[in-house]
Structure formats: structure tokens, C-alpha cells
Design a protein that fits this description.
alpha+beta, 532 residues, six-stranded mixed β-sheet, 17 helices
């Protein structure tokens, strides 16, 4: 934490100069962003088990807790035709208990005082995470390892039917949000039908209806082996302890087939494309969208900075022009949604009541065109850099959760093969000049744009599950803790009663010597000691 504290201190530092008794202090320039990012560091050690599980260990003893984060390098982009939504569906099933703990995963985790516990599925990965008291770490590792290597015998038809219903209800709830159907229009317009990012993570109702118990189990067997996963332990732990516990709980899990993440090129529209949808909304919303390079591409940091200047800052180009200046829009945004292979650059403007949407569209396009042509000013770029860097530093004060140190290490290891990739990103951001950002924005945003207008009015037809009204199981309760830039969907404990017992699938002989007949006892829970 010394390095993060140093970064925070640099951010607030002022050089003091000797001044006359009644003279005002001389103005001092803020610390360069490059100085801030050089001070950001997450020391770690790593090792790989014989079965291929990669383990990263970061020591942070400021509190007696350990963040556990397991990332599988598989997501919805890896789903074949006819099996959309399987990655997310199986995320739900992995919360429903395993062969040696056939109860909701949340029940024992709540009993040991776990926090920041959830799981998320996105286009490129599926992850599970929790932060637990140090004395309860073995319980968390037992549960994570049991659902990694000892799960399928506990997956029953009843559980599949229940969780299928939960996922389909989540789809209905998301789709019924204002502008909820925009995601499908975007996917159809921006990506060819055979592109891995063409379908959404939630999947289609028909594919979810068709998911059989055996095909779902095959999906797990093909992708969820330890050799396709990264385990991060961050917090009050040391390397010898991490090595011993990882071998004990994960060492008996056999290596699975090597999952190869789907390749995906950045598509370009052959010509500008415009569409209009109707929805039960109060305000017309305008969209401008492009597919751009992914998270690990060197162009990504410049595109992110450009989006921040255009519509992310509190005083952005679009805010100043459309909201504060012309007063023809009530809200504007610009942002980039990063994925492993591609990203989506999205600009929106909500039309003010009584204003012609064509007038707003023309002004919106004018501001974007000016930005593409001229790029950001030095002041705008400095503010954008500071906002991004300070936000990342703030997130790294936590060991776990949605944006802590365990996440930073796991994301880099999975997507870039480098746990230190967060440093690469920060250094690229700090080094960019206004001209470099302008050149990158001009290169990617001068390509044909997808324009969408969502106007108030009745919606079109909606794809519904065939099981509705025909005896299908629908479970309305679920656990969800959304975060910016994420799509976290995980179920609440199963309230429908225990399923029929199922025979455990054959497992490899244990090499860790762990007794899986019961959960490990919880050790001593230390009190938090604040520094004097």
C-alpha cells in the first residue's frame, strides 16, 4: 500500500516556496500524471500447479482479509450457434451447490462473513470472487475448488430448469428497462451474423429453451478446467501459505481440454447505417456508434481518452455544446466499452422535450466531426488523464470486489498474459499527446457510423420463451450487484428445496489430501488493527 499512498500524496502535493510575510503563495503546477502512474504497483508472486492452474499471490496485510478471485477464460463470444447464453447459464448453475456442498454457494459464504461476493459473465470471461476473513480462507477455497472440479454430479434437471427460468427472467427484466432492446439492434447492425460478438451475453430465449442437461454439462467439461483458469489470492496471505492451500484444494482437479478463445476481427460497416426504434420512453435518444480495437490494443488508451474528453468529463465537449450551450439536450454521454478482441465506442444524446430531434442530430454530428478533425486540447487531455488515473488508484485501495487489486492482476493475466498489464495501460495513458489522441480518433471514428434513434412509441414484437404458460419453471428471485462496465448476474440461494441426489461423476485421485466430506473449520478471526 506504500506505493498507492505515495500516488495519492503526489496527487495532492504542493511545492512550498519561501515567500514574503504578506505575499500570496506562488502557484504551483500539479504533479505530472506520469509521476502518479510510476508510483502505482501491485507486487505479486506466481506459480502454476501441475494441472495448469495459474495462481497469483499479492500480500497486503493492512486488514485480516483475503480476496479470492477465479477467472475462467471463456465467455459468451465463445458460444457456438444454437448455444447462446450457455456461459451465463452455467455461471448460475455454479452457485447452486457442488458434489460435496449441495446447497446454495451463498449460504456457507454468508455464514463465514464473506463480502464482495458475486460472479459475472461477459463476452470474454466468467469470474467468481469473494473477500473473506483470513481464518475462513480454507472454506472459500474448498467451495471454489469443489465447483471447479466436483460440480457435475450435483447438476440436476431440476436445477437446470430453475436457473434457466432465472436467466430468462433476468433477460425479461433487462429487456423491459427503458432502451432495453437497443443492445440487440446494436449487435445486429455492428457485427456480421457469424461474428463472435454478434449475440448478447444473455442469449436468446429459444437457445435457452433448447439447453439440455447433457449439452450444458458438455459446455462445462470443454471450458472450465483448471488449465483455463487463473486464481488470485490478494490480502493477508503469504506465498508459502498460498502454495500449500492451492495444492491442497485444487491439486486433485484434472486438467481439462484446452479452451481456445474465439478470434474476432474489428468489423467496419460498408457504409453509414441509420435506424429508428420505438420504445415506451419519455425522451428521444440518439446514438452514434463504432466498433474499435480491443482492450489490449495500443490504440485503446487513446480511444478511451478521446471518449472521456468528448462526453465523459463533467465539462465535456458535448455537455458544453448541447446541454449548457444550445440547451437542446438534457443529457449526453461518450464512452468506450472494452472487450478482449474489440471495443464499442458509443455516443448518446437525450433530446430536450419540444426540440426537433433532427436539429439535435445535426449539432451532435457537428461536434463529433470537429473533435475528429481537431482532437482534444492539452487541458482537456490532462483532465481526462487525471480522472482515469485517479479512478483506477481509488479502485486499487481495495483488495477484491469489482475493481480491486485481485481484479487488476486477474484481468491482465487472462487477457494479456501479463498480470502487470494495468501498468502498461496507465503508462500508455500518461504518455499520450493531444496529437496522438487526435490521430487515433480520426483513424477509427472517420469510418462509417451506426446511427440509431429511439423515439417514444409502442415496441415491436418480443421473443418469448416457449416454456411460458406450458409448465416451465420461472424463479423470480436473484442476486445482482451491478457495476460500471460489467454485466454481473448471479442467483440468490435456491429457495425451491433440495434437488434429488445425483451420482458424482468420476474424479481423478486426490493429490492434495483434502477431506471433502465436510467443510473445513473456520480458524481464528482477527480484529482489524488501525495504525497509531
Amino acid at each position: 500500500m506504500r506505493s498507492l499512498a505515495l500516488a495519492s500524496a503526489l496527487l495532492a502535493s504542493l511545492s512550498l516556496t519561501a515567500v514574503a510575510a504578506n505575499a500570496a503563495p506562488a502557484p504551483v503546477a500539479p504533479a505530472p500524471v506520469a509521476s502518479l502512474v510510476r508510483a502505482v504497483d501491485i507486487p505479486y508472486q506466481q506459480f502454476t500447479l501441475p494441472n495448469g492452474l495459474r495462481v497469483l499471490v499479492h500480500e497486503d496485510h493492512k486488514a485480516p482479509v483475503v480476496a479470492v478471485s477465479v477467472w475462467y477464460h471463456v465467455g459468451s463470444k465463445d458460444e457456438p450457434t444454437g448455444k447462446t447464453g450457455f456461459a451465463h447459464l452455467f455461471e448460475h448453475l455454479m452457485f447452486g451447490g457442488s458434489e460435496h456442498s449441495d446447497q446454495s454457494w451463498f449460504t456457507p459464504m454468508q455464514q463465514i462473513g464473506a463480502t464482495d461476493m458475486n460472479g459475472t459473465t461477459w463476452y470474454d470471461r466468467t469470474n467468481y470472487f469473494e473477500t473473506v476473513p483470513r481464518g475462513a480462507l480454507e472454506t472459500a477455497l474448498f467451495l471454489e475448488s469443489d465447483r471447479m472440479g466436483h460440480l457435475l454430479g450435483a447438476v440436476t434437471q431440476q436445477k437446470l430448469d430453475v436457473q434457466r427460468g432465472v436467466v430468462q427472467n433476468e433477460k425479461r427484466q433487462d429487456d423491459n428497462e427503458p432502451y432495453g432492446l437497443v443492445q440487440y439492434a446494436e449487435a445486429n447492425a455492428l457485427f456480421p451474423p457469424d461474428h463472435p460478438y454478434h449475440h448478447t451475453t444473455i442469449g436468446s430465449m429459444s437457445d435457452l429453451d433448447a439447453a439440455s442437461l447433457e449439452t450444458v454439462k458438455d459446455w462445462f467439461r470443454s471450458h472450465y478446467g483448471p488449465n483455463n483458469a487463473v486464481l488470485v489470492l490478494a490480502g493477508d496471505i503469504d506465498l508459502p501459505t498460498a502454495r500449500r492451500l492451492a495444492n491442497k484444494y485444487f491439486g486433485d482437479i484434472p486438467r481439462g481440454p484446452q479452451s481456445i478463445p474465439a478470434a474476432a476481427a474489428v468489423p467496419t460497416l460498408p457504409a453509414p447505417k441509420s435506424e429508428e426504434l420505438h420504445d415506451q420512453v419519455a425522451t428521444t435518444r440518439l446514438y452514434r456508434e463504432w466498433v474499435v480495437p480491443g482492450l489490449t490494443d495500443p490504440a485503446y488508451p487513446a480511444l478511451r481518452l478521446g471518449a472521456e474528453v468528448l462526453g465523459g468529463l463533467a465539462s465535456s465537449r458535448l455537455d458544453n455544446a448541447l446541454v449548457r450551450g444550445d440547451k437542446i439536450a438534457v443529457a449526453v454521454t461518450a464512452g468506450i466499452q472494452p472487450f478482449e478482441r474489440i471495443s464499442e465506442f458509443v455516443v448518446t444524446a437525450d433530446v430536450k422535450s419540444g426540440v426537433d430531434s433532427n436539429q439535435v442530430a445535426a449539432r451532435l454530428d457537428q461536434v463529433i466531426a470537429n473533435f475528429i478533425r481537431n482532437g482534444p486540447t492539452a487541458d482537456e487531455l490532462q483532465r481526462a488523464k487525471t480522472r482515469i488515473v485517479s479512478g483506477r488508484i481509488e479502485g486499487l485501495e481495495s483488495v477484491g470486489g469489482f475493481g480491486g487489486k485481485a481484479v487488476a492482476l486477474a484481468e491482465g493475466a487472462v487477457y494479456a498474459g501479463d498480470p502487470d498489464f494495468y501498468k502498461v495501460q496507465l503508462q500508455r495513458i500518461a504518455a499520450l499527446t493531444p496529437e496522438q489522441v487526435r490521430a487515433t480518433i480520426s483513424l477509427w471514428l472517420s469510418r462509417p457510423v451506426y446511427s440509431l434513434k429511439v423515439s417514444p412509441g409502442p415496441r415491436g414484437a418480443y421473443e418469448e420463451s416457449k416454456s411460458v404458460g406450458h409448465g416451465g419453471v420461472r424463479a423470480p428471485n436473484y442476486f445482482r450487484a451491478p457495476a460500471a462496465g460489467e454485466h454481473p448476474l448471479a442467483p440468490l440461494p435456491d429457495r425451491t428445496g433440495p434437488p434429488a441426489a445425483a451420482a458424482a461423476e468420476p474424479q481423478a485421485a486426490g493429490v492434495g489430501g483434502v477431506d471433502r466430506s465436510h467443510l473445513p473449520p473456520v480458524g481464528q478471526i482477527d480484529q482489524l488493527k488501525f495504525p497509531k
